[in-house]
Amino acid sequence: MTAPLVRIGIASAAGAALVTFGGCDLGHKQTTQTGYRGAGLDQIVDLKHIAKASAIPAPPYPLPPDGGPTAGQSYQNVKVLGGVSKERFDHLMAEINQWVAPPAQGCNYCHNPENMASDEKYTKVVARRMLQMTQAINSRWVSHVKQTGVTCYTCHRGNAVPANKWALAEGTPDPDTILGNKHGQNTPNANVGYASLPYDPFADYLNGQHQIRVAGNSAFPSRDHKVSVKTAESTYGLMMHISSALGVNCTYCHNSQSFRAWNLSRAQRGTAYYGIRMVRDINEDYIGSLQSVFPAYRKGPHGDVYKVNCTTCHQGVSKPLGGISMIAQAPALKGPSLPPAEPEGGHAVATAVPAAFNQPAAMTGKK
Hints:
mainly alpha
């Protein structure tokens, strides 16, 4: 009688293992050494996921040559792209149909087909502001997007509304209930890698101007460095979000010997530094300016507009779309030349990237 019971037990354990590991990412992984051998600074990526997240659509038709009448000369009420040639303006509109508009609606998603110049649909007003935002990203935030740039597809991926967005969290449970008041944490949440950290780090750091850096020179708070444990938890929550959004671990940017030391960090930390400030700029100056334009059903539970975070563009890979640039097929999105963005207060203030970071230490390369 013992043997059948043993076989049943083994079968049950095997079944449980299949259930347990069913959600794991199986398949070939690529490992890249990013620091000294044996320092545990390797990056591990899932090639299948990168291939899936890097897929881009073929252009609707080849980019036409530049020249000829402009869009402003050919159409009415063209406020952002009036100086672009009509042929390239039409090409970009066809791309936006492909990248953003629902297939069943096409041009009608933003336009009244009886009066294409009309601004009566809120989607057209939003699209105009998003064009300005995209141009600003590609011209002012080269410190983050480099020469790869972004297009509407980077965030939308064929959806009218990007799949990855955020609004103010719904709040904390009623303190009179058995659960008590969790103060916005202690509940596993996808935004912070399913940890019990504060689950809305975006409001303070990706829309507000709160200081993210919490590391000090000593083990305990000093008169010059007063940071609470809760503040540190919020910062860690944001770092968990960035890690998940890019599909990397902490050592993609930091050296675990000293997380705070810029001269030991990798170049990616500087890129991420400007990325955080770019997202703030997007949320505050562009998306936030549309608060009165969006209808209620396109807003969060507290009535604020949905905003972007790192996942909106990256979607689990360190370089959106695997680093493939789509700008060559949408040159109008490069925008006019604008002065590059600077950290708050300019490069002289304490929150700026330290000058030492421009002199990378040995840890930034392979050894």
